[in-house]
Amino acid sequence: MVTYWGWIGISVLWLTSAPFAHRTKSSEGRLQRLEHKIPLLLGYLLVFTRHRGFFIYGPLYNTEWANWIVYPGILITASGCLFTVWARVHLGRYWSSNITLKEGHKIITTGPYRLVRHPIYTGLLTALFGTALTAGTGDALFGVSLATMAFLIKLRREEKLLMTEFGDEYRRFQQNVPSALVPFIY
Question: Can you give the residue range of the structural domain that contains 22?
């Protein structure tokens, strides 16, 4: 239950700040959006349905080991949520839940954007993994895999759009920040 407070905080931030985003200049089509939204929503569903196995029945560990897994899961969730909020604050009015270009769009290079090119995705996946650990089901871990796949699809499309819009400026950003999701790895 503790892990849900971080998710509630992120949801409140998203809902309250969305109206203040810059107007959209261009956006991906609805069908393209569904290609990453559907696996992402399925992933979240599998993580948040806790102890109700749809595909792989949980729990994965016995109660003797639960505290050794649940407490680190809570810390991982909290750190992922905080990283997400940090990234969202730095992105400011250019944020959108969809792949879009905003009017006056610019490349953000401050805060967590110095570590990875897509820190909101990094934070959300980290928090989702922590929540899956606290859920302790195979379905939850499978849900994290689906969400990772969805974010990779979205990330590649977003990078293509940014490359088209900003060209050499975005290439320099990629060279300065070589990791898309995981610092020093990918």
Answer: 2-176
